[in-house]
Amino acid sequence: MALITLTSDIGSPDYLVGAIKAQLLQLIPDAQLIDISHHIPPFNYPQASYVCRSAIRHFPPYSFHLVLVDLFATPPKQLLLAFHQDHYFLTADNGLLSMILEGTPAMVLGIPLDETISKTTLQLTEVMGKLINRINKGESIERLGTPDIRFQEKKHLQPIIEQQFIEGQIIFIDSFENVIVNITREQFEENRKGRGFRIVFRGDETIDQLSESYADVSEGEKLALFNSAGYLEIAINKGNAAGLFGLKGYSEKSRQGQLAYQTVRIYFQ
What we know:
Elements: E1 3-8, H1 16-27, E2 32-37, H2 45-56, E3 64-68, E4 78-84, E5 87-92, H3 96-101, E6 107-112, H4 121-136, E7 160-161, E8 165-173, E9 179-184, H5 185-192, E10 197-201, E11 205-207, E12 222-226, E13 231-236, H6 241-245, E14 263-268
Parallel strand pairs: 1-2, 1-3, 3-5
Antiparallel strand pairs: 4-5, 4-6, 7-8, 8-9, 8-14, 9-13, 10-11, 10-14, 12-13
């Protein structure tokens, strides 16, 4: 049985989510389909990579991960089929794969697309579904595409690390308006070196201690913790941090004047 995850920027109201699942089940009747998210904001690669990476690591080996984000960033000539750390990935050739994996996949194949067929979301997912079916029936991945191809790679969004501070970007705002920053616990501890710290955002908002849970502070008080995915989170107990502080998620198309609303800096002292 194939376990298939789905991540997209389609949105739940669109009929395409249901149509994609129906199509995959026709091709692979015993497939188990699991939604990661269909609410990735358009063109937001940092958020897409954070959501995918944080969820995918919890799935069993040999799961298939369909990432249907910004499929038509350029006229699609090929899809990518990758195998990395015992997981299969099927994506557009748009640079997102390397951001999710935080590097180059162990194996990646180009899947040429028929130039005579109109390229639609359903047509691309049909190609993906047929590939999964062939792998599921025991066909070697090396026979399914073109090896050693050139494909787009993008660097994942990294914090700025200096001796006295780390500066991160807001990469995700959840449904409670908690704010996730691209600073991991590992990066924090490695650079902290036992020193005190101040987490500063919006110019004058400061937090100088870490919490283990939201209940560590009184209702309405701000806090900082490292979430289940290991990333820094700014929150308000029983409140909405993003709305109250006017914080916004990072976007490559953001104007320079908005950076103060997207940046969190940790000073060490």
